[in-house]
Write a structure and sequence with these properties.
By secondary structure, the protein is an alpha/beta fold. The protein has helices at residues 14-29, 71-78, 86-92, 112-128, 145-157, 166-176, 205-210, 226-229, 232-239, 245-259, 281-292, 309-316, 327-334, 348-355, 370-382, 384-412, and strands at residues 2-5, 35-39, 44-49, 52-58, 96-99, 132-137, 160-163, 185-187, 219-223, 264-267, 300-302, 321-324, 340-344, 362-364. It has 16 helices and 14 strands. The strands form two sheets. An eight-stranded mixed beta sheet has the order 3-4-2-1-5-6-7-8, sandwiched between helices. Strands 11-10-9-12-13-14 form a six-stranded parallel beta sheet, with helices on both faces. α2 (71-78) packs parallel to α4.
């Protein structure tokens, strides 16, 4: 049995779900017949997904220590075979534990609780004496020296460490020193480039018409990030953006609509949360449509269906161009051959795009105000034909690299 940690499919964040489905689909294709995923449910359950049966076990960093899904409780039990903790039992019986840290969360920049969760989950595998394989992810930064030392200790004990950007590889080389082993410490691509797509069961009539191959107008897709737009002043301070992102994305939408009278804008949420919550992309998209006023009439629409990562990739693959700050939405688009402009609010998008050879197609929100970003987006949209040809020439190589990477990971995991 293989256990996957820190890729819970029930967070509402379809970027994390994309990581989960990409890994599980890849391992299943390579013969894995028993895969367990830690989520935020209770106990052990089974679920039928499009590529096979998946075991689910609850594992959450909360203070209800009497419950087996408590992360600290599970850690204490894993040394003794797991006891009444389903997640501890799964880990103690695994051939290998794969940990992807949500793609970018093995760092202390997101606060103490998340860093603790990243550390404790990895220590569960080490305490159980099970090989720990860190899947392609971003490492750091670590602002607290104590946290850095904790991370280095885990990295030294891991059976294999994969990173998805050159900066993280340099971090590994520098911090591990003599412990660095190029056979164990590898640079890869984000696993989500290999995410399968799946057609949604039901779409609204208007959305189906827009996505039809027989349409006679281009569709530009935009992700309106709730993280950056729903509390724009706080997000601007936190990420040191050049301007509030709600103004950046509104200016971008307006300029795209002005640049081509035939274009339609499809707003694609990639984090599903209740619209009262700050992370809700749909809430941010609805606010943008309202601000656009009559300019949006008949030309701007949001995807309101609660689609999973594979279904969203199906939609993204049918656009003529796409842009957004949710990185895994942009990965879903460019890995489908759709010309894509990534909007970076940290360094993570740049690293992933660089690794796929398209680093020039990232606009840094920390450097561009609303006017500069909107002009850059229009330039990208108008160059979509050339971008599509460039992507077409790169995709076979990107997909082959992702396949080789998953072959190696499966071998390391004993599959």
């Amino acid at each position: 049995m293989i256990t996957l940690l820190n890729a819970a499919p029930d967070t509402g964040n379809q970027g994390v779900s994309a990581l989960c489905h990409s890994v599980l689909a890849g391992l299943t294709k390579r013969g894995a017949d028993a895969v367990t995923v830690a989520d935020h449910g209770r106990g052990h359950r089974q679920s039928e997904w499009s590529y096979g049966t998946v075991n689910l076990v609850g594992l959450t960093h909360h203070r209800r220590f009497w419950r087996g899904d408590s992360l600290r409780t599970a850690l204490s039990m894993v040394r003794f075979g797991g006891g009444y903790s389903a997640s501890a039992r799964a880990i103690s019986r695994s051939k290998a534990v794969l940990d992807i840290s949500g793609g970018d969360s093995f760092t202390d920049i997101y606060g103490v609780k998340r860093f603790e969760a990243m550390v404790l989950t990895k220590r569960m595998a080490l305490a159980a004496g099970v090989p720990l394989i860190l899947l392609p992810q971003k490492l750091g930064p670590f602002h607290d020296s104590k946290n850095l030392n904790t991370a280095i200790d885990i990295l030294k004990q891991a059976s294999a460490v994969w990173v998805r950007d050159a900066h993280s590889l340099a971090f590994l080389q520098e911090q591990l020193g003599a412990y660095f082993d190029p056979q164990k410490h590898r640079l890869g691509v984000d696993v989500a480039v290999a995410l399968p797509e799946r057609a949604p069961e039901i779409l609204s009539g208007k959305l189906s018409h827009w996505l039809s191959p027989r349409r006679n107008f281009p569709i530009a897709g935009l992700n309106v990030s709730g993280l950056l737009c729903n509390a724009p002043n706080e997000a601007q301070r936190r990420f040191r953006l050049a301007e509030r992102h709600d103004r950046q994305i509104e200016a971008t939408a307006r300029e795209l609509l002005f640049a081509d009278p035939n274009v339609r804008l499809l707003l694609v949420p990639h984090v599903h949360k209740p619209e009262t919550e700050i992370e809700s992309d749909l809430a941010a998209a609805r606010r943008l449509i309202k601000r656009l006023g009559s300019l949006a009439d008949g030309r701007v629409m949001a995807v309101t269906e609660q689609l999973d990562a594979m279904q969203l990739k199906w939609i993204l693959a049918r656009l003529d161009w796409f842009s957004g700050a949710r990185m895994h939405a942009t990965i879903g688009a460019f890995s489908s051959g759709v010309p894509t402009l990534g909007l970076g609010y940290t360094d993570k998008a740049q690293g992933v795009f660089d690794e796929c050879g398209i680093g020039a197609d990232v606009a840094d929100l920390r450097d561009m105000d609303a006017t500069a970003l909107s002009k850059r987006a229009v330039e990208s949209f108008k160059a979509r034909g050339h971008m599509r040809e460039d992507l077409r020439a790169r995709l076979d190589s990107i997909r082959a690299r992702a396949a080789d990477e998953m072959d190696c990971i499966a071998s390391q995991a004993g599959i």
